[in-house]
Amino acid sequence: MIGISYPAFIQYLVAAQQPPHLKAIFPHDGWGDMYRDVAHHGGIFMHGWLPDDWTTDLAMGFNATPASLGMYSEEEVNRLVEKWLRHGTLGRHEKMVNSLLHPQYKPLLFDWVINEFDGPYYWERSAYTKYDRIKVPTYLGTEFHDYPVAMHLPGAIRGWGGINAPKKMAIRPTAPEVPFHEFHDEIVAWYDHWLKGIDTGIMSEPPIKIWVRGTSRWRYANDWPLPETEWTDFYLRAGNLLSAGPGPMDDEGMDSFNHRPVFPVTMGSEPLDPMPEHLMYSTEPLGQDVYVIGPIALYLHASMATDDGDFIVVIKDAGPDGSTSVLSRGWLKASHRELDEGQSRPWQPYHPHLRAIPVVPGQINEYAIEERPIANVFERGHRIRLEIWSCDYPVELDDLTLGWPTWSHLSYDKETSYRIYHSGRYPSRLVLPIVPGG
Known about the structure:
Jelly Rolls; Rossmann fold; alpha+beta; 10 helices; 3 domains; four-stranded mixed β-sheet; seven-stranded antiparallel β-sheet
């Protein structure tokens, strides 16, 4: 089997059935977790692409029925629909309202809105819950800085960690196009090895190869994250500084910004004017090339004026000429801050997303935010930049980590204000995977 996106994801589900004639798979850009990778990033509903006919109508057959209608009582469905119709931003999106009032209009969209928490609906439709049943050789593939980072990238990483079978993983410079002319020879070598028994040498190479942005070359590895990684804390400091040390002082205080609801957009819409408020923290110009390859996590101490809110965090490479390139994004709904300590790692916090815990307005909490991993060399003289937003906004229209407005998220529907703390007591920090030697 071979394919990209949905035809990649479906390979996992087929392989988990262990059909006797399936000998190997080559899933490229297949998501692994229907909740976290596709529908609700950090608990924030990703509404941008779902209302459009070219996605939900192609993904669903005619006359399909939402699964939710068989999962909940009529009373519960009506309660959930009414809740979402009262949502200040979703309720102003015509196709979203139509999908709630007429579930058969767009069954997939209806199910994803109604099922706002992780659970049986997503578990049944996710690949990661079936990784333990995949026994055939699997060649995983994706990209770090190409579209769509939100959905496809974590699927390959999850597959690498969860599939216990002969496997390889390539994280390539750009998304391929069918018929895979960018790495056609590699596909043939993979299948010649497993189907014909030809020694193509493909299993003699290190199992992981990563295209490092800025170097135009591959880096090879035996595991993920890279064993030689030096996990380094970069602290948020006063004066919008991001520093690898020392940590902040007690009197450095906090920064703040305000949020106003961003109403849904459709394909081709222009960005808002004026730009939403946000915060930015940057390192001093780097004295040498710095290689960042691997997962990223932000531990943010913050408060807000309402009982919920959203964090959307962005990592950029800022050049000395003022140019910037977006490398990664992370998302977290404040009421979904609860951590699963057993599945969390210092570089990759894991949220169960099984319930909402309202925020106490004004209370300072730590928000552990997973960002999509990167592989980038920050060149000498460049800066590592962190931005904190409360909504999506395409500062750079060629930002493939967002793909405005296709992959935009449902904005929090109440005006609020955020305070970000960085002090000795509340040391907000960005955990970066520094790799020595380039």
